[in-house]
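Cross-check.
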Amino acid sequence: MTITNGHTPSTATGPVLGATDVCATGHPYVTEPVAYDAILLAGFGGPEGQDDVIPFLRNVTGGRGIPEERLEEVATHYRHFGGISPINEHNRQLKAALEAELASRGITLPVVWGNRNWAPYMKDAVVEAHERGFRNLIAVATSAYSSYSSCRQYREDFAKALDETGLLGTVHIDKVRQFFDHPGFVEPFIEGVRAAMLDLAAQGIGPAETHVMFATHSIPTTDAERSGPSDIDFGDGGAYAAQHRAVAAVVMAAAAATPSLVEPVETPWSLVYQSRSGPPSMPWLEPDINDAIAELDKSTVKAVIIVPLGFVSDHMEVMWDLDNEALETAQQNGFTAIRVPTPGVNPRYVTGLVDLVMERVTGTPVAERPALTELGPWYDICRPGCCENVRAGFKPAAAGVAP
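Predicted model, tokenized:
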């Protein structure tokens, strides 16, 4: 079966854990309407005070054998901001923005919020949904790309929450497709890069003298290689890297067409990584953004535009790793640097998320689903073997066909 994204996904079907009846068969795309009761906003979670920092980091790194001294090192980033991660507040704002968008469109779907690593936990959200009489949930995870940590782990969270609450079979959780190339996610980045290029032009720095760095979270290369469906070869870095490269190319093509730039010329760009946390012996995706900045040719490059392409909001790893470390590295190397905004609660992003929900509510045909790269639109039901974590193996996961 050839789909519009040019890939041939596995046609293997089978029971999908915790799914609604329509999605339980495991077909890659769901084009039959589904009657959902509510939206489950699934976040990463973050500490909201100094006493929360170490317990939160233990939640994040549980089972990985990370030494306490490394946790203390990372804790300094949070303590620099009073022990408060902005991510929970961003999710409160996103929840409110989603509710306002839904209300403006006359869509009567409540939004329930649950986190992976801090209160309100996913289990709390499932209990709340059940107590409010909701049985069929459509989940929106605050992560756009395919990998273990950005997709499958959320699906494991859903399965674990259903199991621990005893609501498996009573409450059902489906998930919107990965939205890395949905216009609602991509257009805010296009807008940000265009604004940065115009800002630099006003300072006398042209596109050819600027290097655009698209930054995303580094992950272990073994996880990257197994991101996306296991039966499709996406090249180095798996689907995770391929999706980022494809979106970056779209952003650059759109930015080059900025009318206010006198002579649109090719601007060099690269995909870089940040926030590595694994041991030196474990290969992670490279290059690190700071290394990449330091290696730029100072005879031709005058400015760096940093695009946090892998992130949906300005959480800690944007504020610390980019706004502190990367901008400081750029300054030390004599470059003018601008970090463009994340989508946050940009109206295009919020509208796009509701559009993704409505695809599943109405059963939108695949050919009518917007996608800005040849990789999309992505699959509604994750394929067998998708986004394996080699170290932990396959755990029960909702919203996908079991391996």
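The mean pLDDT is 93. The longest strand covers residues 210-217. Passed to J.P. for a second look.
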